[in-house]
């Protein structure tokens, strides 16, 4: 039975009970009309019940208007919790499938002016090489593990890379006002569509990559992530749709799959900036030049 039906039954039963009690008291008060303190007492009780009935009526209307997530979702929550690691198809893991990880060709959908900037920039200027966290679409679509926690009022998403923690608000709220400051992770609201967790994110700052190996994006980026388990619960399908009118000619969706990890917790991301005192043992050029 749905949460809405429970609320209707509860308020209906309460409302009916009040009508019954009030009718009984009315009969008692009318047995001796105006008969001293007894009659006045029962009439006052009926007045209080009338007030209570109106309070209950208003409360029922408010409760029925609230999102189900506020009063407790009764919908089935898909089994997404846990740690998931990228399924690349080359680790000899029994759940690996080389066909489930392919890079999206963003070039075909990138605006010419952005494509020119993308082609001219130096890969060694990537802020991640200096341990600066990426924006949300890149953070959740990298080579590192992610984790999902649905145990609380809101969903928490984790990315092992840069120790990222995201809150996905599940209480039916809208996105923030347009003029609200943007951040790397943006503002995320979520909902369930059957067995799929849908995460809608806006208010994202401009960033280096719109997705894995993608072009830079503007602060108009809008990301919709869809998470569901497939392959008998062995794989997590992560479908990400990115929309940015200043970067792309149309929305682009890329899909990757993660398998359930044997880890019980994410490994802390101990970032080592390249070409610094701490990372002096490897320069950016060495990082991007494979050893023979």
Give the helices and strands, then pairings.
Blueprint: H1 3-30, H2 36-65, H3 68-71, E1 82-86, H4 112-120, H5 136-139, E2 146-149, E3 155-159, E4 164-169, E5 187-193, E6 196-202, E7 222-230, E8 235-243, E9 252-260, H6 284-288
Parallel strand pairs: 4-5
Antiparallel strand pairs: 1-2, 1-9, 2-3, 3-4, 5-6, 6-7, 7-8, 8-9
Helix pairs in contact: 1-2
Question: What's the gist of this structure?
Answer:
The chain is built from 6 helices and 9 strands, in the order αααβααββββββββα. The protein is an alpha+beta fold.
Please describe what this structure looks like.
The structure is a single chain. The chain is of the alpha+beta class and 292 residues long. The protein has 2 domains: 3-65; 82-288, Beta Barrel (Lipocalin), CATH 2.40.128. The chain is built from 6 helices and 9 strands, in the order αααβααββββββββα. The chain has helices at 3-30, 36-65, 68-71, 112-120, 136-139, 284-288; strands at residues 82-86, 146-149, 155-159, 164-169, 187-193, 196-202, 222-230, 235-243, 252-260. It has a 9-stranded mixed β-barrel with strand order 1-2-3-4-5-6-7-8-9. The longest helix is centred in the first third of the chain and has 30 residues, at 36-65. It is elongated and about 90 Å long. The N and C termini lie far apart (63 Å). Mean pLDDT is 78; it is low at 1-6, 67-74 and 89-96.
